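Observation: inputs received (chain + zinc ion).
Thought: call the complex predictor directly.
Action: predict_structure
Action Input:
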Amino acid sequence: MKILAIETSCDETAAAVVEDGRRVLSSVVHTQIEEHRLYGGVVPEIASRRHTEQINQVVKKALTDAGLALEGIDAVAVTAAPGLIGALLVGVNFAKGLALASGKPLIPVNHLRGHIAANYIAYPTLKPPFLCLVVSGGHTHIIDVADYTHFQVLGRTRDDAAGESFDKVARSIGFPYPGGVHMDKVSGQGNIHAYTFPHPKVEGSAYDMSFSGLKTAVINLVHNASQKGIPLCREDIAASFGHTVASILCEKLFLVQQQTGREQIVAAGGVSANSQLRAMLTAECEKRGLSLYLPPLALCGDNAAMIGAQAYYEYQAGNTADSSLNAMATMSIDRSFAEY
Ligand code: KG4
Ligand code: ZN
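Observation:
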């Protein structure tokens, strides 16, 4: 089954053709990062406008690269939640139009489910059940993936997402948006023990996390030092901060692992590209005899191939939609579109 997938939830206009959930026939990503960088973050109105301008050619290129015309595909999939509402609406309306015009089924996909499915492309034999750490710019979840379309969130951040805290700390030490990747690049030249940052405690759940206090502690350190004219080493801050984030994520993830007994560990989302996190996950899984699946760097960030991969399993489960489908800015990963 060949699925044409569309993704416009944030600042990437993307389209892909994926066969049977695993084989990528084409994948096109048009990023708007350069433009949003001028403002230090994603400007929703600009994102929607650029999606509108780009979507037609991005989708056309995905079909051409796959050597297909619209008649050659079997279904149209689209990210319908969560994300920036105006940005999502561009993809959802375009996909609805294509599905209606071609008479093909329409498959709505949750963006976070898509991030997880990036691993089905990279690892053809990977199958649920597994435990997944989803770490992106907007979400930080520890999710039990019982089946391709059954998810249970067991741990989550109570405030900032890990990616968001990376970006805000990066900004305070002078890196451009999105700063996570810049922090990662220089962290190898810094000392992880140069600073001791807090591991914020969360009341009420052993598995929930908090990154807001940690982020504020680093930003306060930077501001105090600059007011007093004390020079700071960016590399040391990046290394110590990255190490602290990776430690918090791993501590919670392996607590949940002990409870669930899942033996496959999967990572997903933009922050799963982080080298300190990847190294710590690798070492911890090796120590515990668990199998680890890390998405290749090209599949960590937003793309439509991951949406096409998840869409195949959504279709198998009967999760299609009609032209009444609407985009939603927020949606829990364990809910289905049919419930709304
Ligand atoms: O999954 P994603 O591409 O978009 C969302 O769905 O949010 O994640 C983007 C986030 C940004 O916060 C970005 O700074 C972060 O992922 N990120 C990283 C790295 N690469 C991307 N954070 C730390 N280290 C990296 N290497
Ligand atoms: Zn994403």
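Thought: report the result.
Final Answer: Strands lie at 2-7, 12-19, 23-31, 75-81, 106-110, 130-135, 140-147, 150-156, 264-268, 291-293. The pocket of KG4 (ligand 1) is lined by residues 10, 136-138, 163-164, 166-167, 178, 180-181, 184, 269-271, 273-274, 301-302 (CB under 6 Å).
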